[in-house]
Amino acid sequence: DNDEMCEAALWLYKATGDPEYLDEAKAEYDDTITQEYDWNDKLPACQLLMYEATHDDAHKAVVNKFLSSWQPGGDKLYSPCGYAWGNATYWGSARHVSNVAFLALVAAEDGID
User: Fold this and answer.
1) Helices 19-28 and 2-16: angle between axes, nearest 10 degrees
2) Lowest-pLDDT range, 11-25, 51-65, 77-91?
């Protein structure tokens, strides 16, 4: 899958600084906003790592849009006590929420609000 190839290339670029890995990641990159971040969909991580590698505002906007979809007013469902879960996450919702929380933490450290 392209999301996995993109994420792997970006981790290799981050570890080695070899621009060939960044070029490979750019070839695999997709700016689609997905519903979740999990074992089957690593696109949000690819997008965040691409922003870290390039500091391109277009990548920042994609990450921001994904994270905003999980905030109040976004397109996720909420329990009466404020627990969010994705529309496609009928089982194992805690793993999806914790994965998104991790991405939000990394994004905040990268200056994405």
Assistant:
1) 160
2) 77-91
